[in-house]
Design brief:
two-stranded antiparallel sheet, mainly alpha, flat, 52% helix
């Protein structure tokens, strides 16, 4: 009764999914067990690193603009951003058109 589920395009074997779930759970627990054992909750180990400075009590005092935080990433990806900005018109119907074209291309790739 629960061995296979027919979907019309194929079947899903429940026992194979359970096997992979147990296998993946085993590897996740194995990787987790390799973590540091000297970690102690509610100690200085829980404090965030703020460039060697004291962490402000109020979160509003912590403000770093994204342009500064991700400067290297932004500069490295600048050609891609310029290319993507050429498609950016602010008109929602353009984005719907991009969605339709992308969906059609993916549909063609799936069919062939």
């Amino acid at each position: 009764m629960w061995g296979q589920i027919n979907s019309g395009w194929g079947y899903w074997n429940v026992f194979i999914w359970l096997f992979f779930f147990v296998l993946i759970s085993f590897f996740v627990l194995w990787v987790r067990s390799m973590g540091r054992m000297d970690y102690k909750r509610n100690t200085d180990q829980d404090e965030i690193y703020w460039s060697g400075n004291d962490v402000p009590e109020d979160g509003a005092d912590i403000s770093v603009p994204a342009s500064s935080s991700y400067w290297g990433f932004r500069v490295a990806m600048e050609p891609l951003y310029r290319f993507l900005n050429s498609f950016h018109s602010g008109n929602a119907s353009d984005y719907a058109g991009y969605f339709v074209v992308t969906t059609a291309l993916v549909g063609i790739l799936i069919l062939f």
